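Me: I'm a chemist; would you kindly supply a protein sequence with its structure tokens?

Assistant:
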Amino acid sequence: MEHQYADPELGPAVMQFDAALADFARARRSDPQSSSLALLERTRMLMTLPGGFDALYRRVRGLESAGIFGTSDWSKPAILQPALAKRSLREAGAVTTVVEAISELRMLAVTRGDYFHPGISSEQARHFLTQVMALNLDLLSGQLTEADRERPKQLGVIVHQLYQYLISHLGYESLLDSLVAEVWRLLDQGPVQVDSIREMIGQIAKCLYDPETITIDNADATRLVHSLFAPTPGSIEDPGLELYGQRLAQMDDAGLNSEATHFARSMHDTGLASPYHAVMLRFLRKTGKDDLIPTTLGLTMTGLDDLYCYTELVHALIDEAIYPESCQAVFGLTMMLERGSLFTPSVAQALWRHIKLELSEETTSALESTFGNAQPAKVFLLAGVLNLLGQPLGVGQGNNPSCQSAIGLSMWAANEADYLLQVLAWAARDNEVLGRFEGAEVSSRNLEPGLVKEAPVDVDPVSLILIPHLDRIYGEMWRRCQGRDDDAHRWINPEFYGWWVSHGFRVVADIHTGEVHDYDGFVRHFYASYHPFYNGQMPVIHAQPAGIAVTDSAARFVGRHAINILRVGLSPENETRVYFFNPNNDSGQDWGQGITCSTRDHGEFRGEASLPIAEFASRLYAFHYDTLELGDVNEVPDEEVARVMELGHTSWAAPPAT
């Protein structure tokens, strides 16, 4: 009824929208490919009216049920990436912008508990919206940019009003605090791909220093901003790279040493390297002041030993990979040295090969289309190598169903970096990766795509080049296992990842029916394989891939996902925890029943997630184990097994009907 709406135009617009939604729902039931343009235009018109977003918020469930997202990425909200959402909102055409706005209203409804979505938890939705808001902080001022004003069909106004609507429901007062906390939470996980984090910090900087938007004293925000824009006394007012280079040339030894110390302190504080840091390193190389490089990197004894044993190689890596446009590789190089990576002779030789590697036209094109051409493509790829070797637990699958491949990259970077560099050389130079499955060669050339149908999105340079090949090989191995009587991971994982994947394998769900069987024996085998109290104090020697059943914050089943078990041990609180690698870009998740994955404060190294072993086991559905080092399954306490099974049965692993 029209009198319910403050704006006289809103009532008729809502009625027209409801009619269009009903027509669209009927059309989609008979033809899944029927056009959504008429409904999206009605949606756009509603968004331009006061109260329009509130009306759409109440109808967002109906929009999704009718099929407004089709089979696009929007239909799988858990894989959506904030950086891509920003481009969809601010730079795309009307259809894409309106669909993205609908998606974010959906995220808000899920966050507030008004819409249970089987594909994403409320916690995940909140993190997503927080990051999207961080990337659009310029809209806080209430002033549209020229680019926003010039967008057709009032799209700039629509995006601004959407943002104000989100703020009104999520809380304006604590917005900056929440965004800063979100950035620190992500940095604690040691990500390799930090472009979106850098962009968020840039937006935070605009807020901090624009008196027309937010005036707040936030020390954590200042640390983040300074880490990128003012990490040293010589760059304190963000003078620009050219002027900073001139200042370096005029500094005496004491001044340069002070700059070097501040660079190292800032980088190790946040895990971020500033473009000024790259300028400093290139200046030291150009002027022959190489003795300051260890101080500039903040190396400890292990890193110093690595550098002094392979000085010529490290200098070549700086010359070839460290530029302002690839400055995060400063941190990657530092952490690679701190891990002692070069003490494996084949790794050093493989890096020399990579420095001289000729990239194929396809590789060059892929890198340039994603990372631009401010530097040659090989610079970005080599920088990506340094970042991955420095932080093996920082690789993420991005906006792609490629958790298996991401685990491989992490595992090889940590355990067998020379193999990683070999397959990367094949992919980057020859557009082909070779493997073996049960004695037969497998080549990625001419194979059909696996789960990754398009070019990988929102990933690091190494993943961009390797994931398509690895995904095809994994898919081919899966096809060769069709018709077997057990989960294909039993045979694929040892062949795909390496010899260190144990040959023993347990899966708790029937591959045909999905029904849970012998849960008691499954849990006992896991404890007898991994828990130090029941496996003879045997540590995890090599990381082992495993499958988990992901649940949301209400303990409802979301889907299956691959992770990597890194170690099992006592936390500082003397609690037995499983420490694992989760490639989903965000390891801090709430799985319901009080089970929240931790990324800090419980003995985690950067990049690890952890859970108490019982809570972890309650979400486990498949794992590998060493059949020759299995403990006594009967020693595992009955009450511990019962607790794990209760958590599983009351969340994802419903017991079979009797």
